[in-house]
Automatic annotation (TrEMBL):
<dbReference type="InterPro" id="IPR013717">
    <property type="entry name" value="PIG-P"/>
</dbReference>
<dbReference type="Pfam" id="PF08510">
    <property type="entry name" value="PIG-P"/>
</dbReference>
<dbReference type="GO" id="GO:0016757">
    <property type="term" value="F:glycosyltransferase activity"/>
</dbReference>
<feature type="domain" description="PIG-P">
    <location>
        <begin position="50"/>
        <end position="167"/>
    </location>
</feature>
<keyword id="KW-0328">Glycosyltransferase</keyword>
<feature type="transmembrane region" description="Helical">
    <location>
        <begin position="94"/>
        <end position="114"/>
    </location>
</feature>
<dbReference type="GO" id="GO:0016020">
    <property type="term" value="C:membrane"/>
</dbReference>
<keyword id="KW-1133">Transmembrane helix</keyword>
<keyword id="KW-0812">Transmembrane</keyword>
<keyword id="KW-0808">Transferase</keyword>
<keyword id="KW-0472">Membrane</keyword>
<feature type="transmembrane region" description="Helical">
    <location>
        <begin position="52"/>
        <end position="74"/>
    </location>
</feature>
<protein>
    <submittedName>
        <fullName>Phosphatidylinositol N-acetylglucosaminyltransferase subunit P</fullName>
    </submittedName>
</protein>
Length: 171
């Protein structure tokens, strides 16, 4: 049976009762939300700032979109009849989204172009070797049994070994 001062939530059950049950009680609260006051709520009250900013941002976006659509599509005599006489030219209703899309496309093309310019050609040895390349060392003695051999250290495979693995059976 629930206590008279409890709140059921889909996420957890919060108890606002000041008296605590002994070892038989089960708590659904997170350990960081427990306080020493005896209440089952956290010390901070209210929503987090990021939640508030997200809510205000989403409401602002919806309102700004509605104002933009009213400004772009409602005829001027209707706006004048409502008492709206000062607004930007209708040219900007098409120009701003067009400029934004052109800037986005040019940024993507510039990003891809810079990546192609900074990538070495496929004939360059820097695509195979760099300052972190390491050759496999032959420290293992060949007289050890297969079960007693340690794991080989990390090393790069030479291009000649890769070619043998990939193309030797192609004959």
């Amino acid at each position: 049976m629930e206590e008279p001062h409890s709140v059921n939530s889909p996420r957890r059950i919060l108890s606002f009762s000041k008296r605590r049950k002994a070892a038989a009680s089960v708590s659904f609260l997170d350990p960081d939300e427990r306080t020493s006051s005896g209440f089952g709520v956290s010390g901070e009250h209210g929503p987090k700032p990021s939640e508030v900013y997200g809510f205000v941002g989403s409401i602002t976006t919806v309102v700004a979109t509605a104002i933009f659509l009213v400004w772009a599509y409602i005829p001027e005599p209707w706006l004048h009849s409502v008492g709206i006489f000062y607004y930007p030219s209708r040219y900007w209703a098409l120009a701003v989204p067009t400029y934004a899309m052109v800037i986005i496309v040019l940024a993507i093309v510039l990003y891809i172009g810079l990546n192609f310019m900074s990538t070495p050609p496929s004939t360059s040895l820097t695509t195979i070797f760099d300052e972190f390349s390491s050759e496999a060392s032959s420290f293992l003695s060949h007289n050890m049994e297969d079960d007693d051999q340690p794991i080989e250290p990390i090393s790069d495979l030479g291009i000649n070994k890769i070619n043998v693995f990939m193309f030797d059976n192609a004959k």
